[in-house]
Write a sequence for this structure.
């Protein structure tokens, strides 16, 4: 028996997205298993978030083929989406939990914010490039991340209105740690930030505030795009 055309169309609309989703889910699972969990990331919440967030939705269409390869990709305006392993590592370092309020400096396309939002209670993220900030805000809203608030502005100054933060994640390399971010870090909080010169090898730092004192630990050499904000902007 031949099915009516409208039923066939309904079947196509229903099943094609699932096929696409299944195809990308397998790629995400391979990425997490081989390049993230396989390289030592152990936090279950982080691994679950990396499996859930669809990286191909956060890159330009011509980069979607490479979305589940473990390296940065260009997203326009001279910026990049971070390597998935680095996103997972920086997320694990701050020891995320469902009660956390997190500040991210350097929204980019919103991928790191989405991973954080899968775990934390609230994410505040700042992007200095208006086009990227607006695009990320729309994307995150469309994907249902109601616990993410995006601001277009200079991340050097943080977001005092919502401080203090349980954790701060900075996704661009600064020459030194911005004092406002230290001020806005909660007692017992953790900040992860790359420090070093532009377009050279930098050092990823873990900064903790313990009993009013700042404790710094070097984690690994990294290469991030430069922090474009400053105290004059």
């Amino acid at each position: 028996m031949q099915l009516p055309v409208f039923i066939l169309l309904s079947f196509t609309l229903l099943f094609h997205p699932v096929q696409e989703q299944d195809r990308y889910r397998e790629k995400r699972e391979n990425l997490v298993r081989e390049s993230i969990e396989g390289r030592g990331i152990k936090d279950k919440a982080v691994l679950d978030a990396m499996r859930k967030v669809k990286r191909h939705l956060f890159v330009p269409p011509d980069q979607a083929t490479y979305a589940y390869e473990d390296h940065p990709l260009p997203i326009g305006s001279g910026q990049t989406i971070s390597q998935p392993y680095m996103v997972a590592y920086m997320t694990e370092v701050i020891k995320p939990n469902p009660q956390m309020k997190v500040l991210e400096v350097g929204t980019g396309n919103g991928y790191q914010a989405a991973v954080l939002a899968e775990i934390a209670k609230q994410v505040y993220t700042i992007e200095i490039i208006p086009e990227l900030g607006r695009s990320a805000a729309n994307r995150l809203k469309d994907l249902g991340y109601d616990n993410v608030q995006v601001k277009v502005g200079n991340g050097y100054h943080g977001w005092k209105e919502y401080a203090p933060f349980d954790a701060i994640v900075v996704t661009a390399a600064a020459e030194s740690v911005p004092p406002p971010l230290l001020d806005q870090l909660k007692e017992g909080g953790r900040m992860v930030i790359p420090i070093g010169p532009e377009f050279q090898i930098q050092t990823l730092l873990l900064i903790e505030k313990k009993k009013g004192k700042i404790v710094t630990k070097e984690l690994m050499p990294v290469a991030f795009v430069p922090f474009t904000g400053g105290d004059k902007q």
User: Anything to note?
Assistant: Residues 1-21 have pLDDT under 50 and may be disordered.
